[in-house]
Amino acid sequence: MKKIWIGLIVAAILGTGGYFFFQKNESGLKFKTEKVTRGDLVATVTATGTVNAVTTVLVGTQVSGTIKRLYASFNSPVKKGELIALIDPSTFEAQVDQAKANLLSARANLEKTEAALIDSKRTYDRNKSLFSQNLISQSEMDSSETGYLSAKAQMNAARAQIAQTEAALKLAGTNLKYTRIVSPVDGTVVSRNVDVGQTVAASFQTPTLFNIAQDLTQMQIDCNVVEADIGRIGMTLPVEFTVDAYPDLVFKGTVSEIRNAPVIVQNVVTYDVVVRVDNPELRLKPGMTANVSMIISSKKEALRAPNAALRFTLSEAKKTAPRENTTGVWILENEKPKRIQIVTGISDGNFTEVVSGNIKEGEEVIVESLSKPKKSSSSGPRMF
Question: End of a domain among 158, 178, 198?
Fold first, then answer.
């Protein structure tokens, strides 16, 4: 009798285990789910850019020479018209002195020609009177007239020579003035590219001596936005960005310019979008890399589903059902997957707004299948 009871118990255990074994195989699909929630959604276009001053002036020189003195360096605040560097003026001062001497010589020559003109005029007038009385010949009369006209022409040439030397003096004075490098704007020296004793040559192109940012409290970010997103960008669009120097701070700005000139690098087309930023505390510095998010639209307390749920498709449905052209999510109804069609709105990359559809807040949606795919049976090696 005891053996019979033991056999019944073993059979019951085996039967229960077999039931659960076959039940598990029969409904072996397992899924990972997440809830549909409510929250804020912000649709953005991301880009990277470089922080720069709104107005940057490159200060150069129009004359060649040796840097004699520097009156400004890195980070120096400067005012418009302030002397910031001096090129050795010795050569240019000598040129000015030479031009002044040439002008004095030209003026003395004018006085000489004026005196000669007066003398030739007297001779001409006297000969004209004598010729009318038939006291001199025609040749003497013609010679005196020619001398008078020649003296008059020499006086005009002397006056032209004065104008020429005055222009040369003005040019020499201008070059001497250019040895004084002054700031063209109020601002801050961002970079200095020369040292005392260095020779600068302005023969072919103007060398840059200083880089001056006009106002570091107003900055701009030049962003590269890909052509797929440029159509979504509009003027005065709000912008949020971070820089590596302050990873926990979020700075704000607005789109101020969308440039039409394309930038093509390795067949990738981007457009320059300029973002204006206030920088009252001078935290942002020229050259910083900014990770920019341009806010296209936003929704408060929107019904939202995980993006993974929108991407999920039941593998069995892929094989048996035609491809769905509508957006939908899968839920578990009576422990069986069921697809629900929805209409979506904006997305922030992690969640997407559910505009309409038979789905409610707190409902579980399938985001991933945890069941292992069935392995295709393969026959063993053939025995010959």
Answer: 178
Distance, CA of 314 to CA of 340 (rounded, Å): 13
325 SS3 class:
coil
112 and 173 in a single domain? The answer is yes
What total number of domains does the chain contain?
Answer: 2
Torsion of CA 128, 133, 138, 142, to 10 degrees: 0
Indicate whether 119 belongs to any domain: yes
pLDDT tens-place string over residues 180-193: 999 999 999 999 99
**Tokens 């440039």 -> residue:** 259
Cα 329–Cα 331–Cα 337 angle in degrees, nearest 5: 105
Asked if 347 and 293 touch (Cβ cutoff 8 Å), the reply is: no
For residue 380, CA distances in Å to 38, 285, 366, 377, 383 come to 54, 69, 38, 10, 9
CA of 351: how far to CAs of 92, 306, 307, in Å?
A: 71, 5, 5
How much is the mean pLDDT over the chain? 87
Give the per-residue pLDDT at 40: 93
CA 100 to chain CA centroid, Å, is: 49
Report the DSSP beta bridge partners of residue 354.
Answer: 344
pLDDT (tens digit, 9 = 90+) per residue, 85-105?
A: 999 999 999 999 999 999 999
Q: What is the pTM of this model?
A: 0.67
Extended beta strands in 79-136, E state:
83-87
Report d(CA 35, CA 366) in Å as an integer.
9
Instruction: Report the alpha-carbon distance of residue 199 to residue 180 in Å, rounded.
Output: 15
Residue ranges of alpha helices (H) inside 133-205 are 138-178
- What span, in angstroms and rounded, lies between the C-alpha atoms of 306 and 366? 9
Q: What is the mean pLDDT of residues 283-312?
A: 94
Which domain covers residue 174, as residue numbers? 89-178
User: For residue 336, is it within any domain?
Assistant: yes
Q: Rounded to an integer, what distance in angstroms lies between the CA atom of residue 314 and that of residue 334?
A: 16
**Nearest of 92, 97, 99 to residue 61 by alpha carbon:** 92
